[in-house]
Records
---
Amino acid sequence: MNQDLIRKYNVPGPRYTSYPTVPYWDKSELDYNLWLESVRKTFNATNRQGISLYIHLPFCEDLCTFCGCHKRITKRHSVETPYIEAVLKEWKLYRELFSEAPRIKEIHLGGGTPTFFNAGNLKRLIEGILEQADLAAEFEFSFEAHPNHTSKDQLKTLFDLGFRRNSFGVQDYDPKVQKVINRIQPFENVQRVHEWSKEIGYTSISHDLVFGLPLQTMDNVKRTIELTNSLRPDRLAYYSYAHVPWIKGLGQRGYDENDLPKDEEKRALYEIGKQLFDENGYVEIGMDHFALESDNMYQAMIEEKLHRNFMGYTTNNTKLMIGLGMSSISDSWTGFAQNVKSVEEYESIVHNGKIPVFRGHLLNEEDLVIRQHILNIMCHFKTDWSDPAMQFEGLENVHARLEEMELDGLVKFSENGIELPEEARPYVRNVCMAFDLKLLRSKPTTRIFSMTI
């Protein structure tokens, strides 16, 4: 990697799991009825192809200090039942909007720690979701899991319910790094749940690794990746640690910023990871992800069917994604809405018969066009505006904003489009920022995003 280019382009920027990004959603109060109408309209138009569900299960027994998720730290498992009751009630409120049985194409359980919940409660949750619903012909159920808190019973229960993909949060195997991020997790724990998953029959097992963590060095990253490759997961996520203590508070203030690998050093950690993954048969997918050629995410990339949403990269491009649970975000394609972030407030609003959204954004025509361009770039590293429907006011200025990146060999322009060469992929967020009119019109006066590279 060109170190001068890293220094030049390593600036704060969005990760683009949505457009507009959350800080640039409409600041006025979300019109509740218009949001419900956008859900109903998209459902009626697309239910035959299927919808997605994201279910947020927020509880964790311990606080991992690197974590940027919305969570509740507790060791009291008595919280499981009332929370599941609230999620099923929220799903019932959404179902009442629908004119027919929903056809579910995708379910993802995120957290927090979904495997905080015992097998019986996970079964109750999924059976309650699937009651009075149909399944799409090719559905995909997946869940995130903490290796220290995942039992064979949980894995078997979810498999029997239709789950075939799981992802284990590994982060790093070095004891010093694990201690400072409060994630003590020996390799043997990961190996155990990975081998159980293969034995049970899971067809896509993913491991999540993070680079740029405090006290991380080249040697311990190599060791982490070598151990990971020894298990040969089907997919890998290799995330850049997002240090945003001004947003996430005390958790990310548990170490000094001087403990973090800096620009070139941090990017070198990614490059060695990419090299080792490549040597072991993994193909880079989009941004942060790698997969074996046998995995369906690789096939989705080849067929240009890859999609990106609040769950990250997915092989399912559904126009309607319903987010259930505290802090979940729903996407009706023409609108976003986020649930309240407190467990108590979430449960109270749901039991009072209202979908617990507190903020959101309804997309206008300009938003929809730019959203598609950014999706194209994030998923396929190219976009095209030869179709008049893909043009927007101000498009002519995109070239000017990307002129320096073009001179640096990071963007190639055609008459009606752009493409990123392979060596430019680390800069994909910078390219998307040239299309982001919300960001350009209202540049933040304080730092609200992590660094792009």
Note: Residues 91 and 324 are 7 Å apart (CA to CA).
---
Amino acid sequence: MDLHTLQQQYSVATEIKVKWGEMDAFQHVNNTVYIRYIEDGRIDLFEKLGMTSDMSELHIGPILASIQCDYLAPVTYPDTLLVFSTATQTGAKKVELDHKIWSTRQNRLVAQGKGLNVYYDYKALKSCVIPDSIVAKFAALSESK
């Protein structure tokens, strides 16, 4: 997959500067840090969709149920990464996320991940149905791909 294709197929691209302190004793970015990179992409996508305002106003929003990451190539400092993120609604309460991490230094894909989020009522402490306004935004994301 090339950079142009990623830019066309993914809803959000989050730029991340690799920090020296993110590397481990093996002199590459520690595997746990990739999950934080994916989190940055996920939050940027949620903000674009208006999901974070629902959390502050209605106390409902996504909660992470599952996450996985495949490591394709080691990353080292210095580098700038692009985390490409998109989402698909897969049920009345579920949203699947897809992430690709691109290294500008290596000019290649270095990791990819998937996440499952469930819509959650933070006051009632239980899952809830995704609001129609957000459902419409997921549909628009799917159409734009």
Note: The helical segments are 3-9, 31-49, 51-58, 132-144.
---
Amino acid sequence: MQIQIESQPFASINTDALVTYVFDKDDRIEGAVADLDKQTGGKIAPLAKSGELNGKPFEMVLLHYPQGLAARRLLLIGAGKSDKFTHAELRRLAGASLRYLKSRGVKKFVWLAREKENNAASLQTVAEGLVAADFESDTYRSKKENTKNIDSVSLAGFQGNDLAAALERGKLLGDSQNWARTLINEPSNKLTPRILAERAEAMGKEAGLAVDILDEKRIEELKMGALLGVAQGSVEPPRVIVLTYTPAIVKAGAPVLALVGKAVTFDTGGISIKPADGMEKMKYDMGGGATMLGAIRAIASLKPAIKVIAVVPATENMPGGRAQKPGDVQVAMSGKTIEIINTDAEGRLILADGIAYAKKLGATHLIDAATLTGAIMIALANVHVGAFGTPREYLDRFLDSAKSAGEKMWPMPIDDEYQEMIKSNIADIRNTGSGKGGGAITAAWFIKEFAEDTPWIHLDIAGTAWNDDNKPWLAKGPTGIAIRSIVDFATKLS
């Protein structure tokens, strides 16, 4: 799909469809919509008066062969309340327009900017939404239900000198999000740890990143006992994927940011086996790893002035004859000993060794992402990412980036009282909390034990990494959540 900037007056653009949005308020016919109404000889105002055009979120009103326009269709999308309208809503509207028109056989259309959202930042947002919306999750269907495609989208009505750069950044972020979603969508027989490493290596070389893939021998030499404990039940060997972006000039004292992502390519729960219902979705348990790979893919092109390292421990969690058992004790790379209470609490184990290795490589700042706990879904459903971090100032800076990127994240507590819940009688720590509640928090505290005093952010994306249903703006399946926030944060940290 091609996306380009259009400079022609909207009325004269010859295209399959012209698209803009309408707010839910008494005076809906204003600005660009008023211009459209005038150009079409007053065809829009009566729709608003009759109630057919209300401006409710994602309401679609499609006019065919509108008088006064060269476009063969005019699509008006409801945008909701204008006082609550942000770039997050703008991104969704752009995506919804593409999916709506795509399903109707439209090949090309023009997005017409509104008067308050006609700058470079808004153009980038629209491009992100369009690219993400064009992703489909039906990879392995032999007969596709929908073979329709959008060939091109033109962006009209935008103003400013940096529009071209904004367009390229928006396309890059959307494309990196889709690249990660493609990985997350793969079935586990098509994406073992070794295959994931091969695909990450190919991407890294193409992006100009330094690549290092640790096989099981090197993992053992590094004494990554927490990772090896999870991996030992599977015939598939583990891998640790390390991709490094280094700027042309490395300033003395500059931060080194490590992105550590959980990549359990399939999670049965191990000996503490999961229920059969819904287990097929556990192919997405490598979503944190895919997130970090997608983020560093974009970072490689944007070239911030700091070094960024992605560390992705990859394994399966299987209930084989050699699998670790509840009650076992593992020794992590850092030397900490871990009592295994539940083998389904495996993500935090592999993150422990991933974080230790990132620090060994020189990381001064950490972000980890993982589809970690069911507890975060109980707390926040599928609306917000659970965001933990210390010191609080570091977390707040990241949350500012999340807000800029239009991704909903909620700060979670990391009080010292929760640390008591992961103390073990036989080892240094246990891999689940001793209480009945706070599972997402005790999981975060477990990871913090290995981050120690290094500035650290933990993103629990278990509730937000997968859509169970189609959204107007996004296909059912993987979402690619947190990539935009991480990239924004990395560029600002520099």
Note: The first strand starts at residue 2 and ends at 6.
---
Amino acid sequence: MGFVSEFKTFAMRGNVMDMAIGIIIGGAFGKIVASFVNDVIMPPIGLLVGGADFSDLKITMKEAVMNGAEIVTPAVTINYGSFVNALIDFIIIAFAIFMMIKAMNRMKKKQEEVPAPAPAPPAPSNEEKLLTEIRDLLKK
């Protein structure tokens, strides 16, 4: 089997396609959560903290070197505000995934609790049918 056909067989498996769909949806979900954190959650928290925008919080280790209005050397900073935003993103995504898995486990548990109907008894074989007919004739 050639390399291309082997790759095509691998790529077209159901598991790989499901995983690809999950990754695409996960990426979109990540963008939604990032927007939710940056645009909805962080402004009120920043207001409570004193009007600070967390994405702007940083520790300046070395100031920028300027020559008039031109930046010669940019400032060296530790942007811990961006880290706080990313941490809150992670917590929200982890909580959402936890809730989804919890709901799926609950639904799976309900499916397992419902007993399957008892299987119908097997139909009698031709030999049993014939013996039943003979028995009935002998009774008469």
Note: Strands lie at 59-62, 65-67, 70-73, 76-78.
